[in-house]
Predict the structure.
Amino acid sequence: MDWLMRLEKAVAYIENNLDSEISHEEAAKIACCSTFYFRRMFSYVAGISLSEYIRRRRMTQAAFELQKADAKVIDVALKYGYTSPTAFNRAFQNVHGISPAAAKLQGALLNAYPSIKFSVQITGGHAMPYRIEEKSSIRIVGARVPITEDMEENLQIAPTFWNDVIKDKQFGEICELSNTSPVGVLGITAYQNPDEIYYYIAAATDKPVPPGMYEYEIPASTWVIFESEGRFKESVQSVFRRFLTEWLPFSGYVYAELPDIEVYPIGKDIQQSGHSEVWIAVKKEKEN
């Protein structure tokens, strides 16, 4: 429950500062995790990125302000952090579909995005199969692409990267490298610092690094491993969301903030659905 309580406090900080500067770093500090992992976990739990959530909430409040008789568009724009009328107009239209000036008219149709509330719900006993394994360090070798701390941008980069690798001979080479656990084609986001974040398509292996590929070592850890059946993209996202909201709060573990591992079956080309696994590093709460 502590994780959800900390997340709730981080959201409260955001809500209290919609009309002033919001620091992602401060929100992450309240949630007791790094900025990168806070943004990552928030996007899984909320279903949208942190930046998009803040934008929607600000534009929701801006719409309420604009409907006051004496409200001026420029004043509302400045209140919610937009020094450029053009930028404010663009952000407002993206959320509401109409201009700020049109929002002042009686009968204008607007979208309201309420504040996110996190709670534990009884879901009818839907099973979440998992196992826990202690593992020494995991060495991976494969192709990689630079990504950023912007989760929205990363959601565009990763699928394109998969398509490029699958079409290249590297994909077959990666499949042939797999000879240690976890066995399969791995999708891994590895964060080292804000300037060194990579998404890998790789294999766990003890074989040499082929030309044009890279190696990375994930530290020894305790892993909770979830199995899933279905379309890979939806299954993986669902696993992360359920891990954070249903499994982690009651498990006695905390998130270890190590690279998460998506495990897909080996084949001549990547399938769109089937059996997959998600490996998430955790540690006992008392170790935190």
Remarks:
- The mean pLDDT is 89.
- DSSP finds ten helices and nine strands in the chain.
- Residues 232-251 form the longest helix (20 residues).
